[in-house]
Structures are given as structure tokens and as C-alpha cells.
Amino acid sequence: MTKLNKFIAQSGFCSRRKATELIKDKQITVNGTVTTEPFYEVQSTDAVKVKNKLIKPQDKLLYFLLNKPQDVICTSSDPQGRTTILEFFRGFKERLYPIGRLDRNTTGLIIITNDGELTQKLSHPKFNISKTYHVITHKPVTPAHIQTLHKGVRLEDGFMKVDKARIIPRTKNKVELTIHSGKKHIIKRLFKQLGYFVEKLDRIRFATLNKKGVRLGSYRPLTKQEIQELQEL
Predict the structure, then answer these.
(1) Is the pLDDT confidence value at 76 over 90?
(2) Does residue 156 sit in the same domain as residue 194?
């Protein structure tokens, strides 16, 4: 038997956290009856519907690492008709979704999967998943500002500091920066506060994964070892 919120996550419909929200919002029925109990034990004979759509656990879990190019939206669909990240995976019937969203013009690593459990884990702030970026600014970055990034910068939504930051050797306006915060536009906002405009932002590492062997605009499946390492974080 499986708890209802986990059952929904395993179906690939959404993460376990989102499933719990849907249950509490009375969007879930079991055998035709609305249930608001996330920990209800689903029986093998139960018919579970989300927003009146029958769901069932997926037979196969898929994991991919995509090197996202510019001008690609990290959503399943876009009302403005822009290219979405899932258009790279049109040949798959499974319901896939991204972990670690990136802005439209930010390039780099992003995980694509139908594993709702892993999505919840890698997206939740309490797990402190680290991400490393290359940041190109419109003017040279001073060593003093690198120290400021380590010490912390006060933004409109709180005090923020990075895990690591360094000016890449033989450059003046290219910084390698590691951060675990998932706040929206956090890197661009940090540099803006220090007087810099970010011209290019590229994620080169996500958790235990790096860009080696994944060209811009291409993807590869994760290995069993990589999946295990992510699950053990």
C-alpha cells in the first residue's frame, strides 16, 4: 500500500508537495469520494482521480540531463507559443517535467524526469541543493565585490550570501559562483545590487552533475549511479 500523496507523485502528475496541496484543496477523489487525507493508504482496487482524471503509478521512471539553450521556457506549455523545454522530449509518452528551472535566457543544466519524489527532494529549500554558474557581467568584477558576495548582500527579500565565488583566471568579468538558494533571479539580483548587469548566465553544475559530454541543446539519460547519488543527497 502507498500513501495517497506519494501515489499521486509516483504517477508523474506532480510532486508529493503539490499532491498534498491538491488533496487539501479537495481536488482528489478515491472511488468517487473526495478525500482530504494525504496519508490515506491507497489499495490496489482503488480508483484515484485528480481533477476528475484517472491516474496510476508509472511503469517506468525516466531521468535526463539537458543542457538548455537560450530562448527556451521551462514549462510544459506556453500560451505565447515560445519554445518550451519539453519540446526536446516529444517522443516520450511519459509526463516529464523539469527540476531546477532556469530563466528563458539562462543556459545550462537542468534535470528532466517523471519522478515526482526526486522532484520534490531536489526542489525543496531544506535540502540545500548546490548549483554552480558562470556569470558574465558588463564590466570587470572587483575582488572586493567577490568578498561582499561571500559576506552577504541585503536584497529586498532578505540577506543573501553565496557559497563560493571567484573571478575565473585570465578574465575580468567572468565569475564562477556556487549557490544553494532557489529564489527567483537571485544571481542577477545580487549582481545588480553591486552595480553589475549580468550579460550571460550559464549553469555548469547541478547537485552532483556537471556539463561534461552534454552539448548545448542536447541531453543524455542519467546513469544508475548518478540517479542513486541524487536520491542519497
Answers:
(1) no
(2) yes
Q: What is the pTM of this model?
A: 0.81
Q: 138-163 burial, b for 16+ CB within 10 Å, e for fewer?
A: eeebeeebbebbeeebeeeeeebebe
103 is catalytic: yes
The structural domain count of the chain equals: 3
Task: Supply the pLDDT for residue 173.
Answer: 96
pLDDT tens readout for residues 191-201: 999 999 999 99
Residues 15, 117, single domain; the answer is no
Marked catalytic residue, from 46, 71, 78, 103: 103
Domain containing 136 equals 130-206
